[in-house]
Amino acid sequence: MQPNQTEPSAAMQAIPDIQVHSLWWYSWRRLKRNKLAMLGLVIMILLFLCAGFAWLIAPMNPNRQILEYARKPSGFAGNILVVKALGGTYPDEYIPIESYAAGPEFISFVRVGGSKDSVSRSHLISADEAEWHQTPTFVLGTDRFGRDVLSRLLYGARVSLSVALFAEIIAIFIGVLLGALAGYFRGTVDAVIMWFTNVIWSFPFILLVLVFSLTLKEFIDVFDSIIPLSDWIGRGAWQTFLAIGLTSWVDTCRIVRGQFFSLRETEYVEATRAVGFGATRTIFKHILPNALGPIIVVATAGFASAIIAEASLSFVGHGIELPTATWGQMIYDGLGFLQAGQLPGLTLYPSIAIALAVFAINVFGDGLRDALDSKMKV
Amino acid sequence: MLTFTIRQFFYSLLIIWGVMTVTFVIIRVLPGDPARLMLGQRADAQSIAALRKQLKLDEPIFPTQYFDFLGKAATGDLGRSFAFNRPVIESILERFPKSLVLAVPSLLIATLIGVAIGVYSAWRPYTFFDGASRVTAILGISVPVFVLGAVLILVFSNWLSVLPASGYITKDGGTNLKYLLLPMLALAARPLSIIARITRSSMLDVLSQDYIRTARAKGLPVGATVIKHALRNALNPVVTTVSAWLASTIAGTFFIEKVFAWPGIGMLGFDAVLQLDYPVIQGVVLFTAVVFVVVNFLVDILYSLLDPKVRLS
User: Fold this and answer.
1) Domain range summary for chain B, segments of one domain joined by +
2) Widest CA span of chain B, in angstroms?
3) Which of A24, A304, A374, B245 is least enclosed by beta carbons within 10 angstroms?
4) If you classify domain B97-263 with CATH, what class do you get?
């Protein structure tokens, strides 16, 4: 028996107290210290909450038109009677009024515009005055059809984030697959994949997305019969995210290829070959996990540019179809007024929404890159 | 050098062939009748039949249609525009110089200011200026160009009324450079931000190297060290970025031109998309992609003259 084993020195005793953490734990600790990145993360979480709970927090139905209240400024307070609808999309009908007087059987009122009218109590949506007479506040004003801009912004977040997320998942899948194949096998496989990557890279991105989406438009119904995305997000969701996803994998592919180029030369990968592992196992179980940091970083940047691409598509009128609210469509609608010097809010609010979302993702991605300490240039 | 040039030339041709093929596949090969797609839902049977014949759609896709398409595209025959009823290539060649007038000064400004900001940020890192410029740069790449364009119009045209909101430089008869300022600013913002970021990180790398410390230790003034010793070596990634942006700025002024009513190739493409003028869309896509490849080829050659390492890689 050696003396050291029965009486360890003070230094040896200290060893079990040192906690060993994973690389991710240290990265997260570094990330937490980066205030700007944390701000980005908080904004992102808030935006996702807004998107997910839009139906709960939006003050009004985003597509509900009150034509009498078209083009009202921010903070406009409405004054409406709610009566039973005689048909149409909604169970109730809004009558914008200037004033009203409640009688025992009839409510007489003055419509917006000055004409007098009355409605019987049995026609009201309920007996409760708080329900049949409402004064909604349009915090950010209304658009040219009298729809509530704030509600449209909140629902627009849902479109932007979900389409961008789906698109980025497709892009990551293609990019990782092609990048891994090119980087692992090199030679002819690499030459062919890089040629294809360069071809796609040569196209003006947004035009390629557009042409793709125009072609895919023919197949919306086919896709929808498999998964009815049109019902969940809005008509045109399939073509939009497929078009963006199928064209924006180039950056991911290049990064993954670069990572594989250097990782395949390391000793542990050589060891997998010596043990006799197949290519699939080496690529997906051994190399890919070690390239995950850069992939996450490039994925956040890709997510940000997918949001811009979605907004651009709806800006041109070929994204999610009307009447679904999207940020790009709102900006395009507002631009006409802006060029005529009216209603800057219609352009400004959705612009701020897009800029805020993309800014948040980019600062978070930046912080992530610093935290993961991958040697990537911007 | 000659070998390098020839190799790059043939590789570029290979890329252009790929660009044509992808365009062909998207528009012709994917299911759906291109003639009906091009003429719209309400076209009558006669004009659809005529277009089918003109595009040789009744013949097999491969090889007849494919080689017909390649041959025509290679000789500049991109079909006729439905909206203007004239050859697409004429419209493109007429609009293209106007896009250059916008793109070239934009990128020049983006490069000069971007490099200056990047160098100063790296020289005095973690100061207020550095922080502010980094946040601004992230903001610059976060704002979609059409949003930035709209905001610029709002501020300079609506509120301050100092600059015109839209129009080409020859709008009022003579040349009026005032029309160039806003679209140029909007177009420059994104490359400027990226160039500033790349310059900063590249300069930070270089400034921490031993030879810079040596230069300072032997008594060289700070300015000389930063400009002559560091910047020269930090510029490589910057040149790569600028060249990539040169190509895509020339090719991709799509939204800026529409927002500012600048009658270049971007606006031609944008209007074609709104009107579903397929021959023009296809022509603009092909043309801009080819311009992108050609500019990249020229920059590669120029780059290899400046830096012999490129030739050997």
Assistant:
1) 2-74, 97-263
2) 84
3) A24
4) mainly alpha
